[in-house]
Amino acid sequence: MKNSKWWPWVGVVALGALLAGCGGSGGDSSGNASLRVANATLTHASLDLLVNASSSAATAVASDTTSAYVTPASGSVTLQLNDAGSSTALATTVPTLTGGNHYTLLAYESGGAVKTVVLNEDYTLPTSGAAQLRVYDAAPEAGAIDIYVTDPSTDLATVSAPTVSLGSTTGNQTTSLLTYSPGTYRVRVTAAGSKTDLRADIPNVVLESQQIATVALTPTVGGSLMNGSTLIQQGTYSAARNTNTRVRLAGAVANGVTVAASTGSTPIDSGVSPTFGFAYTLVPAGSALNITVGGQSVGAPATALAAGADVTLLVYQDGGAAVASLIADDNRAPTDATTVKLRMLNGVTGGPGALTLTANNTPVGVATQPGAASGYASIAGSTNATAFGLVSSSVNIPAPTPSTSPLTANKVYSVLVGGTAAAPQLLIR
User: Fold this and answer.
1) Which CATH number is 25-122 given?
2) Which of 230, 291, 316, 424 lies 20 to 30 A from 32 at CA?
3) Average pLDDT of 211-231?
4) Mean pLDDT calculated for residue range 386-415
5) Second CATH level (architecture) for the domain 243-329
6) 232 has pLDDT over 70
7) The CATH number of domain 332-429 is 3.90.1570
8) Where are the domains of the chain?
9) Half-sphere exposure of 267 (CA within 13 A, CB side)
């Protein structure tokens, strides 16, 4: 990678600056705007674009591709995205477009909903021999992040500081333009303050002289990892989907037995049951899980490790035998910052059947079966002790240990109920 240098720039700019534009080459000679669609969604394989609710302006835009430019009139326009061939709107936005300017409508998903942002593509080009890059963060649920722009072969452990950082926010944000020599770069995104908590990796961002690239970060299903894509101003679009899964171990077999899990040569976690890991381990999606209880192998769940997911590997006892199940986690923050998202994992041994956990008398997962997780409940966050209770569908069950715990607002918690029906234990992560 050629040596890069910083162009004079001031801080991190607001979203509006990215959308406003700074001039550039002219567009459609009629005075219309030029607009294309980039499909970065997770589950919509093909999209149609409708302008002002008329017939489709761009049709069947496949996942990880862009459409050709279409030419809507300038001014305020209604842009609607549907699944290809469908009349049902997935997302609608009403931007104001400038005649002669170029735009990309980036479509992505968060929490199962399609969202969009209109990106301007008419920024003034850098001088000959220079290229520019910005990072656009459309995944605020992943929290504060550090961004490293390096040579593709650089070990992050050798890098003294991130290239730029973005703080935690509830809305999308972007960096200013960063100026580099033409070449191939690698963009890695980590959780703020950590070089090892990798959230996204875009391995080959090619910058040519007088080119401007936008690296867009979009959500994955788990809320922590991110997908990436690179949009060259008025040029190519390339996707870099996250190919990893984050896994943590929850061991709820008989007390005092060691539970361990790994993928290949990568250990996930190990602990004496009941055990619930604080940290996730990043592994390649689709990796085979190796699980042992007391040194004896346990069959892996049939469910595969999905790309972009956060999952809990729950190992529990079913009729005396150790069994493993894979449970999807949703680590997106609560929509109300004064609340917490709370759920239960039922790992109690001794035939208690379905369980209901209560938190301050609010049910959390009514009648959750052994080896399963409840849905997430919303309760008020508090630094004071939250009181927990348990109800079994088949036996009398005492109050769990601990019976109280503080729950900090705007956090996501999973409560593993382990131990036996006679002495249930809670591990809260």
Assistant:
1) 2.60.40
2) 230
3) 97
4) 93
5) Sandwich (2.60)
6) yes
7) no
8) 1-6+124-241, 25-122, 243-329, 332-429
9) 8
